[in-house]
Amino acid sequence: MTESFSAPHAVDSRQSGSGSPAPALPSAFRAYRLAVPPVSGIARPRLVVLCAVLGIGTFLLFCWGLTVGDYPIGFTDVVRALGGAGDPGTVLVVQDLRLPRALVGLLAGVAFGVSGALFQTMTRNPLASPDMIGLTQGAGTAVVAGLVLGWDAGLGTQTLGLFGALATALLVHLLAWRRGTTGYRIILVGIGVSWMCSSATDYLMAKGGRFEAQAALGWLVGNLNGRTWDETRPLAVALALLLPASLLLGRLLRTLQLGDDVATGLGTRVQSVRLAVLLTGVGLIAFATAAAGPVAFVALAAPQIAQRLARTAWPPTVASGLTGALVVLGSDLIARTLVPGTELPVGIVTGVLGAPILLWLLVRANRAGSGG
Prior knowledge:
Largest sheet: 3 strands, antiparallel
Number of strands: 3
Number of helices: 13
Shape: globular
Structural class: mainly alpha
Number of domains: 2
């Protein structure tokens, strides 16, 4: 269905995630409805500016991270080395040794952010992220089982993590199905499955030997240390396929914000859209977790940060992905420089930064539920 207007006019998009109106926006940052028959849409200058700022910040942080290491390299030398120019030794260090790690952090951050935005929009709940509904825990259980029990059969952590996340998503979907699924049931079932997977992982860690337990723990925390092109390529291919699908699902997801009955009345196949979103989100989180480990809280926090910066009624997909990349790259930089001579796992830093955001969301949800 298309709509035509004689002239673009402002559309009020200042509704905050809490249901109360946000402060008035300058006219330059308000949303405008545009129509060029047969296509119509809404232009949001603020969101465009936000994505541009986040993109520039991500690129600068990406290059800055490449300067850090045992062999210090200047920022301008890093930029030149990315293009293949400059000293051959610098080019070797940047492109072969440091670039895979930075790319895994960048791509995994985008995947975490977009996946979190999809789940939070689908369920209309800011707490609905892959961390909370068991997907990352399921991937972790599969990887630990492979390392401790020797079930990997040469598959590697990437394939095991992918199978674990997909199996967990299927289990959640089946347990939440009752003439269809709802966001509320997916969250409740997902929390239960999450605890089940966490308990299974703890049992496997206790059962395994010291070497296997250390290897599993290093992956479970969320770690970018030692990443190579073997982890980068599958993640890049997955994002090349799944990100366009995420953008195509964005408009259908926004109809789900109106409720299942209204969305059905508008011609949206609610259960088909929900299944497509689930599969797309699971694919993103599975490949990202397989490459970087279950980096905590990024999928939960990034969409919420992006939503508040953009002042939209739902987490914006592109801005959420860029925010996730910024969070992972920034946390990795902190992890590498906080303790001289020691590289902390990136998941420790994201956990420290993300825990207050989770507490804030819980307090905010409690106040909204009590009418306070």
